Amino acid sequence: MLNKLNIYIAISFLLLILLSIGALYIGVYNFEDKSPLTVLSNVIFNPAEVSLSEKYVIWDIRLARIVMAILIGSILAVSGTVMQGMFKNPLATPDLIGISAGATLMAAITIVLGAHFKHFLPDFLQFSLLSIAAFIGALGTMLLVYKMSTSNNKTNVVIMLLSGVAISALGFAVVGLLIYLSSEEQLRDLTFWNLGSLGGATWTKNAVLFTVLVFSYVILLPKGKALNAMMLGEKDAEHIGIPVERIKKQIIVLTALMVGTCVAFSGTIGFVGLIVPYILRLLFKSNYQLILPLAAVMGSILLLIADTISRSIVAPSEVPIGVLTAFMGAPVFIAILIRFKNSM
Amino acid sequence: MIKAHQVSYSHKKYHILKGIDVSIEYGELLAIVGPNGAGKSTLLNVLANELKTKDTERIFFKEKTFSEWNIDDLAKNKAKFSQHNPADIPLLVKDVVIMGRYPFFEASPRREDLEAAENAMRKTDVFHMKNRAYNSLSGGEKQRVHLSRVLAQLENSITHKLLFLDEPLNNLDVKHQHKILKTIKDFTQKANTTIVVIHDLNLAAQFANKVVLMDKGKIVSQGEPSVVFTEDIITKTYGFPCKICDNPITKKPMIIFG
């Protein structure tokens, strides 16, 4: 079975690399007679031959953005998959239990109110205020939801899902209120935040995302067996040696970290954590030993395609990427509802 | 094998178990019987370390309390079949059965894990449907899948293993009831122990070495089937008249209600 997995992983990686090269070629800037790939190899091996503007476009804009799409797509898909394993429900995603809403809430508050006290803060804090706020929002929400729904070391899944609904409602209300208080420029920022964009990609952000990804995946990706066992029910999973409570805590903390970081850098890009596991489940049933590692690659593929479309379809302007993922995600959402309407 | 001394359990204000003393030896098949609400499943869950009470420290599994065990070793020494199995597990039958081998392999099942799973599936007659979707099975078939998962878990080289079964025969037809009990009997005869909650007194009389009869959270009587199954005790505990005679085939006590 794992041989099969290795083959699927290899094929998806190959596909991802081909798509990345393809995405490198798509954009408004004209490299004249050189292909973007030669320019890129010159940037790496032969920096003297590349003009500053070419280096800037290929390295700091296109490649940075492609890498960011790959990292964020992967992280969102994996966090969705592990949440669904924990809740034993294909509709459970970080959006659903309110982590994204919590992060967005803090980000929105920072955008609108931050303008007033921004000048009193040191430079490095000003620069990263938004990211820190989104991360604190995600973690705070996660802890609140966890505290509300946990007693005697046991988690009540229904309460946890409903607290997510409550926090999303609060986030929606606060953002709605802030729209009246915000200036026109802030309004654009808020829209960006609500619909998501990878336009702000930089290598510093990518380095942070990569660190978060490696740290989380080392702990989460080997949990396929545990998530399978949890389908038996948490008590029976314990009888086959799965430390259920500890794994649930790891999932909760790491999902907050992963989603918080993504929201900080790209706004709320919804549905990735819903679409990717859904497609994988159609192919491989719910075997988390297969779908968890595959989600890590498929998430990248999905978001890279979506982002390339979002920045090329109305070039030189761009469609918010959240609009595209919602177009893909909503039918999946409905399909799941129809499929499970009898059991939910 | 496992000893419990003065174990009680209450949920909210209700006392479900009151001062239970039980002790089961290697090689015994213990049947817990009693009317609805007697506390049979609760006792089984407490003994299996699934329900924790303040008295859990008074339960000794192989001379150690559960807090002295680590979770991996426990999973190799004991297994439990639960009364309520999930209806929805979107996996194949063989994927569910191999879960019983999770304590034994890291990422990918080894050959002995696959063999253990195959043996277990043959014992419960589910081998021919190993590639079917679990969700497409009937209630009784699903139950047999979980039984083979539990049997696969205890197919290992450890001596003296403990198997907990909560009403394992509920949805099974006569042939499978007897086949499963025969398998369990073979398992206990290899110096292992089984504790089973069961409703059918005649099957309990036929297969168990020892019976615990419970009512209202207390043990009414325990001992060999012939000691516990007397007309007096059974009629009083179940509140229903009965006659007891010898089973013409097995020569064990046969309880006839009415």
Automatic annotation (TrEMBL), chain A:
Transmembrane segments: 7-28, 63-83, 95-115, 127-146, 158-181, 201-221, 251-276, 288-309, 321-340
GO BP annotation list: siderophore-iron import into cell
Protein keywords: Cell membrane, Membrane, Transmembrane, Transmembrane helix, Transport
SUPFAM superfamilies reported for this sequence: ABC transporter involved in vitamin B12 uptake, BtuC
Topology with respect to the bilayer: Multi-pass membrane protein
Domain of life: Bacteria
GO MF annotations, alphabetized: transmembrane transporter activity
Predominant location category: membrane
Family annotation (Gene3D superfamilies): ABC transporter involved in vitamin B12 uptake, BtuC
Compartmental location: Cell membrane
Any one cellular-component term (Gene Ontology): plasma membrane
Pfam families found in the cross-reference section: FecCD (PF01032)
Family classification: Belongs to the binding-protein-dependent transport system permease family. FecCD subfamily.
Protein name: Iron complex transport system permease protein
TrEMBL record, chain B:
UniProt-listed Gene3D superfamilies: P-loop containing nucleotide triphosphate hydrolases (3.40.50.300)
Superkingdom in the source lineage: Bacteria
Keyword rRNA-binding: no
Keywords: ATP-binding, Nucleotide-binding, Translocase, Transport
Domain ABC transporter: 2-241
Keyword Transport attached: yes
InterPro entries: AAA+_ATPase (IPR003593), ABC_transporter-like_ATP-bd (IPR003439), P-loop_NTPase (IPR027417)
Described purpose of this protein according to its UniProt entry: Part of the ABC transporter complex HmuTUV involved in hemin import. Responsible for energy coupling to the transport system.
Protein name per Swiss-Prot or TrEMBL: Iron complex transport system ATP-binding protein
Source organism (scientific name): Mesonia hippocampi
